[in-house]
Amino acid sequence: MTLLHSILHATNFSRPFLSTLVPSIGLAYTIQGLVAIPSIAAQTERFYDLSGSLTYISCTALSLYLPTIRARAAAAAAGSPKPAWPSLLAALAGNGGGFNWRQVALSAAVSIWATRLGTYLFSRITSDNGSDSRFDNIRTSPPKFLGAFFAQATWVSLC
According to the model, what pLDDT value does residue 96 have? Predict the structure, then answer.
């Protein structure tokens, strides 16, 4: 059994809300933890805001495509043909395509916002010699610095 099948099986709750929410929260904490490790080792917050944007965009994409990923994994396990990937453009054109147009429009708005904010904050920190005054007191304390990354994962999960 592959890692993907194991994760899909472990998060296959009877309620669709939990089946989407739990993997998204897990993804948020995983991304933040992976970015936190080198950041803590180098004692730099250079990629903190950029990782927040990446986490928003990744969780948004996962929430859009998770039902299709589950359906494709189930079809592969059953030996039947895999369903096609849904079309974002078809949903916006009103042709269905596996998505509701409101879901696509909201996901696009979140992605545009996260990209704009992340690039602005990243350009700001790179112009300020790679430091942010918010992290002056916690940068040298690995538990506090990790707490900042996990607070960001929590923020992404709540929004």
Answer: 64
